[in-house]
Design a protein that fits this description.
InterPro entries: GntR_C, TF_FadR/GntR_C, Tscrpt_reg_HTH_GntR, WH-like_DNA-bd_sf, WH_DNA-bd_sf. Pfam families: FCD, GntR. This is Transcriptional regulator. Keywords: DNA-binding, Transcription, Transcription regulation. With 231 residues, the protein is mainly α. The chain folds into 2 domains: 77 residues, Arc Repressor Mutant, subunit A, CATH 1.10.10.10; 140 residues, Up-down Bundle (Four Helix Bundle (Hemerythrin (Met), subunit A)). Helices cover 74% and strands 2% of the residues. It contains 11 helices and 2 strands, in the order H-H-H-E-E-H-H-H-H-H-H-H-H. Strands 1-2 form a two-stranded antiparallel sheet. It is elongated and about 60 Å long. The protein starts with a helix and ends with a helix. The model has no long low-confidence stretch (mean pLDDT 90).
């Protein structure tokens, strides 16, 4: 078997070529031997890379013929979809789509967190919010983003649902990038501080509906800021 790291590199190269349009969706995939030469890997490594992309719906096996490259709308693997969403030309749309997904996931997470959070969870949230405020005042965008992500991660963990944690992990890289874009605007950071305070207070109150509503309002504010101040 090829080494995992070499196979994953081949997966990334092949996926990037598909995303860039070098290999066109809807058309047949070139022979594995040809791809192996082009990407500088063994035929065995390329065969395994193709198999992994088949598992994500990027490449479709066609009986009696060469594999077909599927359009993005047919992709089923989160890693492949997220990689496409991060590509040039897709960033604005993907930022708004990510917010829609966050609205669905994080409002429910806040609702569960209000019911299940511990005193330790609240302490983590308070600490993250305090650091967000400090970094905002220092105009340290990178540190602000880090504390912001820790705040939301603490809510997910306070919700105490293992499947929820696993479901949001593939979105982490996109979250870091979009937060960096929005948090570079001081006005957006100021809005975030107010909204995070409301979310924390609602979770601390233990009233699930209030926590859900506070998170929904935070997501709406983030959407409005993204549209009016960034895009």
């Amino acid at each position: 078997m090829p080494r995992p790291s070499r196979t994953h590199d081949a997966v990334d190269q092949l996926l990037d070529a598909i995303i860039a349009g070098t290999l066109t969706a809807g058309e047949q995939l070139p022979p594995e031997g040809q791809l192996a030469v082009e990407f500088g890997v063994s035929r065995l490594t390329m065969r395994e890379a193709v198999r992994l992309l088949q598992a994500q719906g990027v490449i479709v096996q066609v009986p009696g013929s060469r594999h077909r490259i599927a359009p993005v709308s047919e992709w089923t693997g989160m890693d492949a979809v997220v990689r496409h969403a991060r590509s040039a030309g897709q960033r604005e749309r993907s930022s708004l789509e990510l917010l829609e997904v966050r609205m669905m996931i994080e409002t429910g997470a806040a609702q569960l967190a209000a019911e299940r959070r511990s005193d330790a969870d609240l302490a983590v949230l308070e600490d993250a919010l305090a650091r967000m405020r400090t970094h905002h005042e220092a105009d340290d965008v990178e540190a602000f983003v880090g504390a912001d992500l820790e705040f939301h991660d603490a809510i997910i963990r306070a919700a105490d649902n293992r499947i929820l944690i696993a479901a949001i992990l593939p979105l982490t890289t996109m979250l870091e990038e979009t937060r960096g874009e929005t948090s570079a605007v001081p006005q957006i950071r100021a809005h975030a501080l107010v909204q995070h305070r409301s979310v924390l207070d609602a979770i601390g109150s233990g009233v699930a509906d209030d926590a859900r509503d506070a998170m929904a309002e935070h997501m709406r504010q983030t959407h409005d800021d993204l549209v009016s101040l960034v895009h």
